[in-house]
Fold this sequence. Notes:
The protein is mainly α. 68% of the residues lie in helices and 0% in strands. The protein has helices spanning 10-21, 25-31, 36-43, 52-62, 66-70, 86-93, 115-130, 134-151, 158-180, 184-201, 204-220, 224-239, 247-266, 270-287, 300-313, 317-323, 333-349, 353-366, 368-372, 375-387, 396-405.
Amino acid sequence: MRGLGDHLSIGERIAFYRERRGYTQPVLAGLVGHSTDWLSKIERGVRKPPRIDKLAELARVLRVPLGDLMGQPVLLEDEEKHMDDVPAVRDALMSPRRLSKQLFGPTAERQLPRPEQVQVFVERSWGDYQAGLLGDVIAALPGLLRAAQELEDLPPGDQRRCGLAVSARTHHLAATTLAKVGESDLSWLAAERAMRAADESEDPLSLVSAARSGTHALLANGRYEDALELGDTAAAWLASQVRDDDPAALSLLGMIHLRAAVAAARHQDRHTTNSLMEKAKRLADRLGSDENHWQTCFGPTNVELHRLSIELDLENIPYVVEHGGIDVSHMPAERAVSHRIDYARGLCLKGRVDESFRELEEAERTSPQLVRNNPRVRETLRDLRKQSPVTGGSHSSGLLAMAQRCRAVQ
Length: 410
């Protein structure tokens, strides 16, 4: 529920929705196979929040989106401009023109754009996304989505196939960005549009790239088995379609394996997770270096970053703390910040307050928007404040200030 309060902990959110559904603690605990004491301690913040798979189960029982329990990311305004243009993105995705090409076909006098023109702006926004400039991406998306729709109206032929590939890229960008800012339902809509356009483009790499957006949307909606199925299907299909020495294909195939591994980990399937991670590692070794084909950031470093994130989901905190000090200075800001947030969470759970806070500070310096939008950051900041002295301490004032910037406290 939007507006429930970013400052609430996961436990407080569970209690809110439990009471709203009229469940007692014993009833809800029984529905998810746990004791009343387990649920009571989570709601009171005495024990750490449930694993992601258990949160997804609680969300299903309480009949709320997973993001409502985790705390939705909220696109904040910066010092210069208000960046919350998500309603405009929604309007572009829900245009009546999307409903029927028979009813809303192009008129004779309407001049349609050229694919290469639109592609320039789409790739520029992909660069903004990887730089962590979410507000700029959200602001650009309404115009890009309208242009993508027009490209799909091009007459049959090579130009239309190119236009469909650009439309797929545009909707993929929308799906990934919307998942990042907590619009999970809209993310799925954009991902479905990306895959439909890619299907019609007859471009194998476009289709598998679009499938990545589908896994993002499914993960954001807590649909881990579906995300795993999509990833496995896309990987098997791509392997039969392209040369095995194409670095772009290797990168996309590797990223699909990584996204599927995340889904398996969140489903608590360690065996499948390890198998997928090994496939991704072999592809990264063949690639030989960290590359960014199709904005994948795929390579040996990204495989290790995903391994750390997966171990965090599997609650292997000692592994995260021991191996988390990876050099991410050469990675795009979005990927580097995601890693620092995960590493900070692991350090926090091990009680290493100062180190955890330093990671969050560095992440915020790299991309304030990514950090201040992130519900995991808010949960970590609340936990760090519990572990820190109320007064004194080397980071107490800075910790409070960051918690306020991120809406972790009122």
